[in-house]
Design brief:
Elements lengths: L29 H13 L17 H24 L9 H6 L1 H12 L2 H19 L7 H13 L5 H21 L1
Helix pairs in contact: 1-2, 1-5, 2-4, 6-7
Length: 179
């Protein structure tokens, strides 16, 4: 978001006096957060998660209404994604207020407890980390050759070695094209 602060979480009891405050979702986080929110909503009826108190204490009707509205907002978000009309860049506070993420934030704040929202934020940060790194599988001989290359060139990591090899490959291709 450009110069726009992320919305703050409305705490169930009282805001912490020290430490980082919880934040609601920003528009660019919604594509990652939507499936995690849906999955967490299903935990309401999972006996293993009931003691964790991820949800605010609501009566069954209130919970049903709010979870239905949240599910409806997430379906609207999915249809915007499929139609290609979802925009995660917001210019000002007015656009943020009218954005689908504001509706999702409002219902999340009404349904999830402080601990439940911390859990969802943790899942989001893990998903972001996973999306930034990829796993490459190498057979043992290739890994041995790569390890030897790392030792020979005094590199720090396999990432560095692969990067170096790719750079060398590009240089060789350029030299061959010039000839």
């Amino acid at each position: 978001m450009n110069k726009i602060k992320k919305p703050l979480w409305n705490y169930q009891y009282s805001a912490p006096t020290a430490g980082k405050r919880l934040l609601l979702l920003a528009p660019e986080e919604l594509p990652i957060a939507a499936p995690l929110i849906k999955k967490t909503l299903k935990l309401k009826y999972d006996s293993d998660f009931i003691p964790l108190k991820f949800f605010r204490p609501l009566n069954q009707d209130e919970y049903s209404n709010k979870s239905l509205e949240l599910a409806r907002a997430l379906r609207q978000f999915n249809s915007e994604i499929k139609a290609g009309t979802y925009k995660d860049n917001v210019e000002d506070e007015i656009q943020l207020t009218l954005h689908i993420v504001s509706l999702v934030n409002m219902y999340c704040n009404q349904l999830f407890s402080d601990d439940g929202w911390k859990y969802i934020r943790k899942l989001i940060s893990q998903a972001v980390k996973r999306s930034k790194s990829k796993t490459v599988y190498l057979d043992s001989t290739t890994f041995k050759l790569l390890s030897d290359y790392i030792l020979m060139h005094k590199l720090d990591s396999p990432n560095e070695a692969i990067s170096q090899l790719l750079t060398d490959s590009k240089i060789i291709d350029i030299d061959l094209d010039d000839d």
